[in-house]
Amino acid sequence: MKRHYAVPVILLLLTLIYFPLRDYGVLEPKQLQTILVFIALFFMLAMEYRHRTVVSLTSLLILWFLGIMKGEDMIHYLDLDVLGLLFGMMVIVEALREAGFLSILAGALTSLGFRKIYHLTIALSLFTFITSALLDNATVMLIIIPMTLSICETLNLGRATVPVLIALSISSNLGGLLTPIGDPPNIMAYSHLQISFIGFILNIGPPTLLIYVISLAVIMTLFRREMTFEIGNKNDKEKPKIEKNSFLIISILVLTLVLLLFLLQDITGISPSASALYGATLLMIIGGRRMAPILREVNWDLLIFLGSILIFSGSLEKVGILYLLAQIISKSTHGNPYILTTLIAWLSSLVSALVDNIPYAAVMIPVIDELVSLTGYYELWWVFLISVGLGGIATPIASVPSLLTYSALRDKFEFKFLDFMKIGLIVWIILTLSLNLYYLLL
Amino acid sequence: MESLVPLVSSHSPVYGLLIFALALTLSSIKPEYKALVFISSLAIIVNIYSLNLEKIFIERTEIIKIVSAVFGLEVLSALLSKGRFYELISHRILGRARSPNRIFIMMNLLTALLSAILSNVLVLLYMVLVAVKLAECIPEFDPRDLVTSLIISSNLGSMATFMGDISNIIVGVNGDISFLDFLSVAAPISMASTLLSLSVLFILLRRGGRFHCEVAERSEIRGENPYLIFGLTSLILMLTLIPFSRRLGIDDSLAIGITAVFLLFLGGDEISKVFTEVDWPSLIYLGALLLTTESINLIGGFKILFEEMSLFRNQLNVYFVSIGLSMLIDDAEAVAILSPVLRSLNAGRDLWWAAIVGSSIGSALTPWGSIANIIALRKLRESYRGISILRFLKISILANLPTIILAYVMLNWVSE
Fold it and tell me: Does ipTM exceed 0.85?
């Protein structure tokens, strides 16, 4: 009941502090309004005041009424590539689930004979970490989450599924850091840096691997009770039953084709979103009557929520808040590599924890370039890229893997936004601290 | 316009038209796959002609406005449906049923009225259930003719307001026709047409006798959730606020969507969850349909289809083309095809009105003229017995022929 009173009070307070802050004159009115609406949005999401998509759409409408975002700006920041990729992969994954592929995969993994939950967690997390390094994180998580849920259901894990899924979300976020193609900020920096593929991995790989190991250790410690549950006895009862059907074969073929297109992106020139949409369209045409209910099963609510969060992040870029941040960093550090490392590590991960990391990376890449040329401290690139990736762990809205994991946990276990944030923040602080220390000691 | 086609494609627009025709045929045969069919056709057309969807979105803001309005109506329908509003109405009708003639008039008028402000599909679905319930109550009662008349009344009634039908919203946004314009022009035509067709239907289908139907306690349906009160309040609020939206500089269609979002936000935690009950595939279908027609227009498809574009400068021609198209395909699809053509001709209001009135009458003429017709007839077949196409056409043509003439006369009068 508390939230019903707390949220209106906070909203009122935010409205009231606007006037003195505006008169203070540090920020322009539009920048101030955007920050306050953003705080309100974040607060309402954290308190689960209303349905999350309704909250995000209402906040966008407020930005529209305030004249901060116009209709065309919203479409510009909507990022149809991200949404198209998600929609396409959702359709393909739903078809795979309908065809029974995920159950078969889950059954096969279950029969491997994991005795304790941490065995299962490590195995799945490693798989997620490696695949996320090669494929889009959203794609990986869309396949991994339902598969993991299916495994945990088979093994009757109940709420012990929570740490497994959280570990996977962290692994996906970190796996994306490992290669130049794993994450959008990496792709952007890679094209800017003109470094070889292997050179990029050799630079970013060691700290990422170290942070990944630390993250697993943190999860194991936080959920030490769940991690030691015995699951061995249940494995033998569940043997995967493979029922071959044409829809299953078609779905697997389409998934293989799409994954192939992802890997051959440089040669074909087809973007991942187009590949996923082609795959989904192909399935819709071939799949016939089995595809109509699948389209209804697509998580439309999540797509709209993500779209509105992307627009919101865009608004912070549009009013110049991200640019302002970059300016502050370059002015306040005076080129000292120690201060720079610490500031970039914490600030970048904090900003990425709150907003989409793509606009932030787009704004910061020229700033980092400038700072590197001023100080000659080339490692700043890796500090920046890893910290941007780490931010994605902290909150449910910070990255697509976190959002997908939070959605699954919420639907399955009524997991709260704040519950996710509590764990996310602990892991985030430890990992950012590790990153900071790694580069300071280096 | 060329700027929207970044790579000038060497492909003939005929391929696009063929894909579009195939999509229309498939969606008419299997309306439950309509979203799937149009997403696929859009993806293929965009791929073949290398179209830039983002640019189409930005340059054709009408698409977002239309989807926004339909989203608002979907929210309203979801609220009322969750509040068991339609069940309450059905209950009232059944409770008052005494004679076939009285129930015939009451149900037709109510269907027309509700269709003017709510989703035709939901209104017709519940009315079909009432008709079937009547048949269960009175074994000698055959609900098939009643359902046919309800379909006609629903289509004619939906003509009355901006939010009465998706086709109205499409034409309203493209032709810049406001909510109040609809009330002053389309509503009188709709009322006259409904009353005329109802008179013909009454003469054709009237029956004697008296009956009584046992119904459940009203309290069983009413009062256990907040959705009904909130849904009805939202409906009244929307109908009151939307006429003033233009004064605030907000388009009517956007106002419907915006009001819906704010209502969900203000309604409380439980009410806001109605968001998930919105029929998203229908909205996606609409977006994909509009994007497909815009794409076809961009590649010059409609120029080939309607070789004599000047044909569309005449109100009578637009009226009959609109009737003809809506008889063959869903009325929303018919006006989605006509809208880019009329827009490129800078059509006047008279032509847009002809398109609206024509599409509403056309959709009442055939069993496949609107998705609501198809779904209602399917429900009838599942819960009772199907009606033959010939029987439907016989009734609908007889009831609508005088309406076609009357509506055209009124259109002319309004235009002058």
Answer: no
